[in-house]
């Protein structure tokens, strides 16, 4: 009989163990899909290479697609979090770090990056939502660094979004034909960002380009 007034602790051990197992499967999947396309791996292949029962993957993710989406979401979560952090460092350094992290992610998760940018097979709304989330995180980071706020006018937002979309295309070509170092690529993208910021200022003087982006700086 339980003593009166005793504290009843919630049974969290099973939940924690389940979360840890799920995280372990995602980590395994990230390695498997790092340079292998979605269609190239069957569930049997995944289970065999992960050294787990196929039913375990179905238990946690319901399907191959559910497993793959969970891997992509987990992979880009770190990138988005990294872009949104670092408020204590200078804005220019934050922008450089965000672009470098973006390129590093694309370089080391090429199959996932291609899927995110292309939107998956056909029109995949969930993959599109992941891609749009990454785009908005980067636009927000650049806006806060350039203008000190994220609630910017439509023209300024479109100018930054156009730059982000051009980065996607350039990055796809870079990972397919890696003739430039990541450092060179980062510098090039930073300079093209400067051009976008100057174009925004020319069309809307309410959004002046920050000093590092000015030609006379």
Summarize the structure in words.
By secondary structure, the chain is mainly α. The chain contains nine helices and no strands. It has helices spanning 13-32, 43-50, 54-61, 64-84, 91-108, 110-118, 125-147, 154-176, 182-203. α8 (154-176) runs antiparallel to α9 (182-203). 26% of the residues are buried. The model has no long low-confidence stretch (mean pLDDT 83).
Fill in the keyword field for this structure.
single chain, 217 residues, mainly alpha, 0% strand, elongated
Q: What is the mean pLDDT?
A: 83
Q: What is the overall silhouette?
A: elongated
Run of helices and strands: HHHHHHHHH
- Our Rg estimate from Cα atoms comes to 21 Å
Topology:
Elements: H1 13-32, H2 43-50, H3 54-61, H4 64-84, H5 91-108, H6 110-118, H7 125-147, H8 154-176, H9 182-203
Helix pairs in contact: 1-4, 3-4, 4-5, 4-7, 5-6, 5-7, 5-9, 6-7, 6-8, 7-8, 8-9
């Amino acid at each position: 009989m339980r003593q009166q007034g005793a504290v009843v602790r919630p049974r969290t051990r099973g939940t924690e163990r389940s979360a840890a197992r799920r995280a372990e499967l995602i980590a395994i999947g990230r390695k498997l899909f790092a340079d292998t396309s979605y269609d190239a791996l069957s569930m049997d292949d995944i289970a065999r290479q992960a050294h787990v029962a196929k039913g375990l993957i179905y238990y946690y993710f319901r399907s191959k697609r559910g497993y793959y989406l969970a891997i992509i979401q987990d992979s880009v979560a770190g990138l988005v979090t990294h872009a949104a952090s670092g408020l204590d460092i200078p804005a220019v350094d934050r922008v450089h770090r965000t672009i470098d992290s973006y390129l590093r992610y694309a370089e080391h998760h090429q199959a996932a990056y291609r899927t995110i940018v292309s939107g998956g097979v056909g029109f995949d709304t969930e993959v599109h939502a992941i891609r749009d989330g990454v785009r908005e995180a980067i636009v927000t980071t650049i806006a806060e660094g350039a203008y000190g706020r994220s609630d910017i006018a439509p023209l300024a937002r479109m100018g930054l979004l156009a730059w982000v979309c051009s980065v996607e295309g350039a990055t796809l070509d870079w990972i397919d034909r890696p003739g430039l170092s990541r450092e060179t690529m980062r510098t090039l993208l930073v300079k093209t960002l400067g051009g976008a910021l100057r174009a925004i200022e020319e069309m809307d003087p309410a959004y002046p380009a920050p000093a590092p982006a000015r030609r006379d700086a």
